[in-house]
Amino acid sequence: MTSKSRTAPVLFLSLFIAVGSVPLVMGIRGVLQSRATLAWPQATGRIVSSGVRSEQRTSRDDDGRQRTTTYYYADVTYEYVVDGKSFTGTRITLTDGQSGSQADASATRDRYPRDAGVSVAYDPASPDQSVLEPGRWGNSGWLLLFGGVFCGVPALLLRAMLRGEPKTDRDAEQIQARTLSGVVFKERVLEWEPGSRVHLHRDHETFTTIVIASVIVGLLFGIVIGAVPAGIFFFDRFGLMFVVKAYLAVSVILALAFGISFGIAHRRRDTVIDWGFHTVRAQVGWFARQYSFNQIAGLVYLAPPPSATGEANSKQIAKIELLVDGRKYVILETEVTRQQQKHLRGKLAPILDPLSAELGVTWSEAEVKSSSASSKAVANRYQGEDRELVEAIGKVGGHVAHRDDKVYSVDLSDVEGTDGIVEIVAQFSSLQKLQMKGKGITDEAVRFLTYLGDLRVLELRSTSLTETGVRMLSNIKSLECLSLKGTRIGSAAVHPLADLPVLEELNLAYTAIDDRALEYLADCEYLDYLDLTGAAVTPDALEKLQEQLPDCSITTEEDDAA
Prior knowledge:
Blueprint lengths: L2 H34 L5 E19 L5 E17 L2 E5 L12 H10 L5 E7 L2 E6 L7 H25 L5 H9 L1 E2 L2 E2 L3 E6 L3 E6 L4 H27 L1 H4 L1 H26 L3 E6 L4 E6 L2 E6 L3 E8 L11 E10 L2 E11 L6 H16 L3 E5 L3 H4 L12 H9 L3 E5 L2 E13 H7 L7 E8 L2 H7 L7 E5 L5 H7 L7 E3 L7 H4 L10 E3 L7 H7 L7 E3 L7 H10 L4 E3 L1 H5 L1
Helix pairs in contact: 1-3, 3-5, 3-7, 5-7, 11-12, 12-13
C-alpha cells in the first residue's frame, strides 16, 4: 500500500483511537483508584437515609425545540465513627457520580435501607473519605471495556499498517503460484494441464483476519444500530451507561454475525479435474463431492460490470465458475481494477478455451451481480426490442453482455467481420465495448461507429482501416481503450489519435508505424498503456516517449522476450 493510499485509513483509525482513549483513560484511573480502597480500614456505620434522587436538565436540539432529560441517582447517607470522631458519607463506590437508570437507583436504595448497619471503608489519611463497597469498579469497568475495544483494535491495525514490511521472496513465490495467463488469482494453481490434470486450491481466510474484520464491523455498525437508537429512545430513562452497554451488546452480536458469514464466504476451496479418471472433485469448506465428466454442463466467466464512474484503482471481482450437476463451483476468482478489467477477457480466453475444449463443453459470459441485484428475481434472458439480433450474434459465435435490457458489450473477435456486421451491431445505441476483427472491415465501418456516444472500448484487429478511418475514430471522444493490432496503418494515421481526450490504453502491435508515430503519441497525456510489439520503432524514440509519458507502461517485442 502506497503512502498516499494509506492516508485515509490511517486518519480513520487515528480518529477511533482518539475517541476511544478518553473513556479508556477514565476507566483505568477509576479502576486503579477503586482497587486502592481494598486496603482501607473499615468501621461500623449506620444508614441515616436512603432514597432515589432525580435531576432534570433542559436543552435545545438543532431545531430549537426544548428537550428535558431526567437523571437518577441513589441517594444514600450513612454515618460512622473513627477514633471517637463521627463522620458522614454518601458514596457507595469510589466512582459514584454517573447517572443510571431509575431501576438501578432503586435497587441500590433497597440494598441499603434506613437504619441498617453497614461496614464503612475509609481513607486512613483522610477519614472523611469513605465508601460502602471498596474495590467495586462501578462504571469504570464499562468505560475500560468500551475504551479498550474502541481504542485497542484500531491501534493494532494501525501498527500493522505502519510497519510497512517489504515484500519478501516468499511473497513473490506465492504470487507466482497464483498467476495464470498473466492474471493473479486468489487460488493457488497447483497443476494446470488441461487434458491431463488441473488442481486449484484456495486457503480459508485466517482466524486473525476474520476476528479483526468482525470487530471493526461491530464497532462501526454498533454505533448506528446500537448506540444511536439507545441514546434517542432510552437515555432519559436509563442513563448514559445503558447506552454504552447497548452499544457493546449490539457490537458483539454484529461482530459474531459478520464473523460467521465472512468465514463461510471465505471457506477453503479445492478443485481437482482429472482426465485420467474423468472426474471432478470439488471441495468447499469441509464438504467434498465427486462428479463424472458427463455431469459437467459448462463454464461461465462472470465479468465485473463496467463502471462509468469511480476511481481507476477501485477493485471488482471476476470469477470462473464450473457448472456441474445443477451446482455452481467457483474454481478461479480474481480482483481487478477498472483499468485491468478492459483486457481481462482477453487474458482469460487462453484459460477458458483449452479447458472447455478438453472438457467437451462450451463457456459463456455473464456479469457478476451485486448482492442487491441478486436479491431481485430478474430473468437472465435479454428482453429488449432487438433480442432477435442478440440471439443471431450468439448463433454465429459472438458474445453479448447486457444489463437492464441494454446491450453494453459485443464480442465478435472469433468471427470474420465485415462493414455490414459493424452496421448491424452499431444499432445498439447503449454499446460501450466492441471487439471485432477481419479484413472485411474498412473505413466505411467506422462511419457507423461514430454514432455510438458511449463507446469506451474498441478492438479492431487485423482490419483494412486506413488513415481516413482512424481519423474518423478520433471523433469518438468517449474512447478510453483502442486496439488496432495487426492493422497496417502508418505513422500518419496515428496523429489524429492525439485528439481523443480520455484515451488511456492503445494497442498498435504489428502495425506499420515508426518513430514519427511516437512523436504524435506524446500528446496523449492520459495514456497509461501502450503496446508497440512488432512495430519498427527505435530504442531512442521509445526512451524519449517514456520520458514524456512517465506514467505510461510501454510494451515492446523486446520487453516480452525478456
